[in-house]
Design brief:
This protein has 439 residues and is mainly alpha-helical. Helix content is 79%, strand content 0%. It has a single domain, classed as MFS general substrate transporter like domains (Growth Hormone, Chain: A, Up-down Bundle), CATH 1.20.1250.20.
Length: 439
């Protein structure tokens, strides 16, 4: 007995390289999609991620270079969000009556292909308004996409799916510096047009992958077969029922509030972040160098998603929510405190934001998906999207007004919102048992 114990004590500890290798393997195993729909949607994410990263970073600078005022940039953003509200309002209804796949493909084709062509050839503010309105129609695809991603999967499989989507989407942010090289080589206008032309090609590739790899979910087929009454009155009744379920479930309601406030803050950052970093009244950095910001965010997220997120099971959900929210708060604080001309603070902000997004978003999305009944998912996703977008519409105009007073004010508002998100998460954790979702 004592000899065996001594041998156990003498057993060598695994090396740090072996531990890292094993953790990497665990991460890769976690990120294996459980069904064909999830695999196809995940494979298409890098294309969407590159397009969205390029458009978000350089879109406002491209508009300003073509004569759009900084206040008008916020108004154009509000127009797009307003259309997104109406698109999201019908998205859940169309998903049940047209089918998830058909709704997703048609809405994304109209909402991304046509606007990209307009942006590519834009000459005036009117062109950007039209493009923003058309782009808003893509949000009709969001409820359908959310259903296809997780339907026909077990609840415990959904957090890894969202984590993989997150990694593939943000991993494409490593290509954002390519856009910076285009701008540096050809200038903001010509470089911007090349970015939109490249984005159009990527969108067509993503749509092709999904058309080939995605099939209607079994739940979608059942609901589609049962659908008879497509009247507006029926749709409004379904919307009211979904709204009541949202209001009566504390878990769904708090997660909805967290998502809404986070989206409001993201709208501020996406609309005015690049302008703030390049404005002489802001940080005064070059348009080419700020391409490193989304790349740093993406790199951080990839590391966290591979090495940390696989370890966050149901028992660590509460910790993940708190830590992720703290990352966003510190990221906004670093950007707000950044002195002019120094790149280090925006990089710190990008790293903190990347950590927060990698940890918080998959847990929040999976928890919300697990809390929603399967047959109500499309319509409740639609309700959540509608109210989130309605609350976010003022973000652009408000941020634009604050920006004219001081370039730092919009980011002070974003910081305050993330502090409030932390309070909401603490309240959720006090009354919530995440393990019950997996039973």
């Amino acid at each position: 007995m004592s000899t065996h114990t001594q041998k156990d004590h003498k057993k060598p500890m695994p090396s740090s390289s072996k531990v890292a290798t094993e953790q990497f393997r665990n991460g890769v195993t976690m990120f294996k999609a459980p069904n064909a729909n999830a695999r196809a949607l995940i494979i298409s994410e890098p294309f969407w991620g590159t397009v969205v990263s390029w458009y978000n970073l350089y879109g406002p600078l491209y508009m300003v270079a073509l004569g759009v005022s900084k206040t008008q940039v916020g108004l154009i953003t509000a127009v797009g969000l307003t259309i997104q509200v109406f698109a999201a309002l019908v998205g859940g209804h169309l998903s049940d009556h047209w089918g998830r796949k058909r709704t997703m493909q048609l809405a994304d084709a109209i909402g991304w292909v046509i606007p990209s062509i307009i942006w590519l050839t834009a000459r005036s503010t009117t062109h950007f308004l039209i493009a923003a309105a058309m782009n808003g129609l893509f949000h009709a695809a969001v409820p359908a996409w959310g259903c296809l991603l997780v339907e026909d999967t077990k609840p415990e499989e959904r957090q890894p799916i969202y984590a993989m989507v997150q990694m593939m989407f943000v991993g494409s942010g490593l290509l954002v510096p390519v856009g910076g090289l285009m701008v540096r080589r050809w200038g903001m206008i010509t470089g911007g047009r090349i970015i939109y032309a490249s984005g159009l090609i990527m969108i067509l590739c993503a749509l092709g992958i999904r058309q080939w790899g995605v099939r209607e979910s079994s739940i979608g087929e059942n609901i589609l077969g049962e659908s008879v009454d497509n009247s507006p009155q029926k749709a409004l009744g379904e919307f009211a029922t979904s709204l009541r379920l949202l209001r009566e479930s504390p878990t769904i309601f708090i997660l909805f509030l967290v998502q809404t406030l986070a989206m409001f803050s993201a709208s501020i950052r996406n609309t005015y972040g690049a302008l703030y970093m390049t404005d002489t009244m802001g940080l005064g950095l070059s348009a080419a160098i700020i391409a490193l910001i989304p790349a740093a965010t993406s790199a951080t997220m990839i590391v966290v998603l591979i090495l940390l997120v696989p370890r966050l099971g149901p028992n660590q959900t509460n910790w993940g929510l708190r830590a992720g929210a703290l990352g966003f708060t510190l990221g906004n604080l670093a950007l707000l405190m950044a002195p002019p001309g120094l790149m280090i603070f925006p990089l710190i902000s990008a790293i903190c934001t990347g950590f927060g997004s990698a940890v918080l978003d998959p847990i929040r999305q999976a928890s919300l998906a697990n809390a929603i009944p399967d047959r109500s998912r499309a319509k409740i996703n639609s309700v959540i999207a509608v109210f989130t977008l309605v609350a976010t519409i003022p973000a652009g105009p408000i941020a634009g007004l604050l920006y004219t007073l001081s370039p730092r004010l919009p980011f002070a508002v974003a910081l305050a919102l993330h502090l409030f998100i932390q309070i909401l998460i603490v309240r959720l954790i006090r009354t919530w048992d995440p393990e019950s979702e997996h039973q």
